[in-house]
Amino acid sequence: MSLAPAARLVESAIDVTAPARPGAVAASIASVATGTDLDIAGLCKSFDRDRPILSNVSLRVPQGQSVALVGSNGTGKSTLLRCCLRLIEPDSGAITILGRQVHALGRARLRRLRAEVGFVFQRHNLVAQLSVLSNVLHGAQARHSGPRVWYQALAPRPLREEAMHCLELVGLADFAARRADCLSGGQSQRVAIARTLMQRPRLMFADEPVASLDPNAGEEVMELFADLIRRQNLTLVFTSHHIDHALRFGDRVVALRKGGIALDAAARALDAPTLRQIYD
Ligand SMILES: Nc1ncnc2c1ncn2[C@@H]1O[C@H](COP(=O)(O)OP(=O)(O)OP(=O)(O)O)[C@@H](O)[C@H]1O
Ligand SMILES: [Mg+2]
Fold first, then answer.
1. Is 259 in the pocket of ligand 1 (CB under 6 A)?
2. How far is the CA of 114 from the centre of ligand 2 (A)?
3. Distance from the CA of 34 to the center of ligand 2, in angstroms?
4. Which residues pair with 84 in a beta bridge?
5. Which residue's CA is minimally distant from atom 10 of ligand 1?
6. Among the four residues 36, 47, 138, 270, which has the most C-beta atoms within 10 Å?
7. Percent of the chain residues past pLDDT 90, beyond the cut
């Protein structure tokens, strides 16, 4: 297949490091002050020696930018996100998140860093038998320890109010007392997003955050998620197989193919047919 148009985009003068959405002007200004939130340099990962999954992948994401990471099944998108937080240990390369060199961190510091970075998975991983509010409260485990962040009934008032506020942001304040296993898939994913907001992250990774939802719920949750990210000027790297989502919710689209980055372009400079080529 020919990736010619896409390749041209990679080489074009498009400034993929600049946030594209209008609301990201503040983020752009902030990036001058705070710089790059995620810097991946020369990342290599293979699970068996003969077949590298990621070969020398480098990517810089400035503060406030939303990056859609796309590519066919098995191209290493989830592996890349997980390597960033060393949920999967990279073979080599340097990763810097929020100014900290992830590859050099000891256990305790790595745990602290992970707590500052939101991670939304395809499956929400809520604690089924606990209330929605308790689940959201768990996001504060990054900042507090012990039973007061396990159960809503034991939580100090400010934390409980903050958790309620996060639930309000995802439109589920009325569900606070409900058990998590009584929610629909879309509601569960909203609660998972609220829990991540409770972490007060600056940087978010989301691995196919709406893949398990039906088209309507997926659309609704992705719009809500992207809107929250935008309003809080958070940096986001998300994976998706929805070309439409990548173009609408990413400022920038990065495509993986054959272990490397096959396309890196501003979303506004791409269209669906061009992007679809990376799946050919
Ligand atoms: N823990 C593991 N052990 C061995 N191989 C793995 C492991 N995790 C992932 N892989 C392999 O690495 C490759 C990349 O997987 P990864 O899940 O990162 O792909 P992906 O781009 O996220 O795919 P998808 O679009 O299906 O989610 C796949 O071939 C997969 O089988
Ligand atoms: Mg994946």
1. no
2. 19
3. 30
4. none
5. 47
6. 270
7. 71
Residue to mutate (ligand 1; options 53, 57, 122, 238; most atoms within 8 A of CB): 53
Orientation of helix 185-198 relative to helix 215-231, angle to 10°: 20
Q: What is the pLDDT of residues 211-228, one digit of tens each?
A: 988 888 899 989 999 999
Q: What single DSSP character describes residue 257?
A: E
Q: How far is CA 143 from CA 132, 252, 274, in A?
A: 19, 31, 43
Nearest to 163 by CA among 109, 129, 200: 200
Pocket test for ligand 1, best of 69, 72, 78 (most atoms within 8 A of CB): 78
205-to-5, 12, 119, 161, 191 alpha-carbon distances in Å = 28, 27, 5, 25, 16
pTM of the model: 0.86
* Ligand 1 contact, 240 CB (< 6 A): no
Q: Are 83 and 278 in contact (CB under 8 A)?
A: no
77 alpha carbon, closest ligand: 1
Residue 51: CB partners within 8 Å, gap ≥ 6? none
| pLDDT for the residue numbered 192 | 94
Is the minimum distance from the CB of 23 to ligand 1 under 6 angstroms? Answer: no
Residue located nearest, by CA, to atom 3 of ligand 1: 47
- What is the Cα–Cα distance from 277 to 62, expressed in whole angstroms? 27
Closest CA to 96 of 40, 164, 151, 145: 40
pLDDT, tens digit (0-9, with 9 covering 90-100), for 64-104:
999 999 999 999 999 999 999 999 999 999 999 999 999 99
Instruction: Give residue for tokens 């372009």.
Output: 265
